[in-house]
Amino acid sequence: MLIKMGLIAIAFIVAGVIVAQTVGHLAQDPNERPATRLTEEVTRTNRTAGRLDSSFANVLPPAPPGQNISMTLPGGAPGTGNNAPGAPSGPDMAEDPQGGVPGGESPDVGAEPEPTPDRYPEYNTPADLAAADAATFTDEMVEDLEIQQTEYTRAVEQFYDEWSARYNLALDSHKRFQWRVDRANVTAAEYFQRQAYLTSLMTNPERKALFQGRDRQEQELYRQWQLQANSILSQSNAIMGELRQLNLEITKIRLSANFLALHQEFQTIPHAVTQLHNDLALFRARSEQLQQSFNPGGVHNQ
């Protein structure tokens, strides 16, 4: 009964989201800026994904003993197994109250944080990988060639940092949503197979027929949820396409800004060289003065 109610709740949630989106599009101001619409769509998609995650987590069946099937869902949903994408390896990786790992050392205070690992690398796209590589190349170029910041590069870096932080968050949320939809499909197949097998073992014909009908109802409800979840995922994919386009543009702007700063640095003679050249006459005069002081009458030491 809990599973059936959970699936019905999922169907209502997704249907409500789709209706709300449709009404919102009809009432939308045609003069509204595209950037504003895009922001609203991203926010709505992330909120919808969270609702779907939370709702479907309530109807996931537990993994059978001895089966290496992970039901772990990112974001805190309970599960079993250690093979889900992003799940830590090892027998017990729970954190202790001090923030460390049981049996290990506490992290150093003030130490530089480790980069966040990619939890869903199978959902990376060539555009995201290329943009990340370009960002790394830019950092290495600036450090290797000692490129000095200009007012323009400082502005670009500040803009890029703000954008990349929000883009990486949106990208991770999108990939997480993709993984959970795919994982739900795998879990559902196992779930319905086990339900059908349990029903087939029943010996009471009337009760068996009753539970066969319930199994069919659950499968139909799940198919409806699957169609709606895939529809929302398609909307999220379309939005991410726009975000990836802008991410490539901003990455190129940052790369160009730093390369331009390098180019400009080679357009002038180094300041130390010109400064010493300006004082050349002074040093020449002092040199001659020293020579005359230690060689009276202009006689040179042999």
Can you walk me through this structure?
The protein is mainly alpha-helical and 302 residues long. It is built from 7 helices and no strands. It has helices spanning 2-26, 34-57, 126-144, 151-200, 205-265, 271-278, 280-294. The N and C termini lie far apart (112 Å). Residues 52-104 have low confidence and may be disordered.
Order of helices and strands: HHHHHHH
- What percentage of residues falls in helices of 4 or more residues? 55-70%
Mean pLDDT: 73
Low-confidence stretches: 52-104
Biggest pleated sheet:
none
From the alpha carbons, calculate the radius of gyration and give it in angstroms. 32 Å
Oligomer kind: single chain
Number of strands: 0
Give me the secondary-structure topology.
Elements lengths: L1 H25 L7 H24 L68 H19 L6 H50 L4 H61 L5 H8 L1 H15 L8
Helix pairs in contact: 1-2, 1-5, 2-4, 2-5, 3-5, 4-5
